[in-house]
Amino acid sequence: MTDIKAVRAIAKDVVQYATNQRASDIRLSLRLTSLHPNQRVRMHAYLLRKYKIKITPEKIKSLETVEGLARYLLQRFANQRPATNKRAAPLLKKFEKLHAKIESEPLDPDVWFEMGRYIDDVDLDEERRISHSEYLSSKKGLTRKNFNQISCYKRALELNPKHVKSLVQLGRMNHFYLHDDKEARKYLLKATKVEPRNYLAFYLLAETYNDNGSRQSQTMALRYYEKALHIDPEKAKRHGVDEKIRDLRIMRAKGVR
Which residues touch 129 (CB under 8 Å, ≥6 apart)? Predict the structure, then answer.
């Protein structure tokens, strides 16, 4: 960690949190930002924990400026050995196995789908996600831009355009993460045509319409929720589909948009 520009950005975040949180231990304050919506802030909090760097308001005051703190952090990053992330090790071994399978069976869509699901699991945990990104950067030609769950699912579809699991996951990613419901519906509708009794495809289709709010969207959401409920009542119960159908019917009866 010797990039002064990156360290200066960390210093700026630390000073901002020192001002806003007024915490006696800024490291503790940053620990609480693990769910912060800003990915940069989460990354900075993670790096301070990884290198076991504790910063107090007194230290910030003594260094006077963000630039002074940046120079201090740069020195600490250079001298401090990072803590080992034990949780990341098993996942990285799994990545090695999956990557080896992709190299040996590059035309198998199931292998690409499995890699996409692996990256999905990694992304659920910030520390594992960053460790995975660092690992990818050590592999020539691999980055999160050209090797992520979406690229893996799309590669599976290139090999098998009717790969239902990949169609459903691309629908999910477009709805929840990319916020592109039009694209999500394209994948999900295709999944329902390939596999007419796929519960998750119908449930996710309903979700893409339920967030819209218009009367037409409410009608579509209701239709797909009812279809999902009919296909698998148990899964529908876990997703609260009954309540969603009831709420939509009430809104339609009241003419709420």
Answer: 122, 123
Q: What is the CA radius of gyration of the chain?
A: 23
Q: Which amino acid is at 71?
A: R
Cα–Cα nearest to 151, from 199, 105, 118, 192: 118
Q: What contacts 137, CB < 8 A, 6 or more positions away? A: 143
Non-local CB neighbours of 93 within 8 Å, separated by 6+ positions: none
Burial 158-169 (b: 16+ CB within 10 A, else e): ebbeebbbbbbb
Query: What are the residues whose beta carbons fall under 8 Å from the beta carbon of 187, sequence distance 6 or more?
Result: 167, 168, 170, 171, 174
Segment 154-210, tens digit of pLDDT = 999 999 999 999 999 999 988 887 889 999 999 999 999 999 999 999 999 999 998
Number of domains making up the chain: 3
Residue 195 lies in a domain: yes
What does pTM read for this prediction?
Answer: 0.62
Distances (CA, A) of 53 to 50, 59, 74, 76, 247: 8, 12, 11, 7, 50
Residue 217 lies in a domain: yes
| CB-count burial class (<10 Å; 0-12, 13-18, 19+) for 65 | exposed
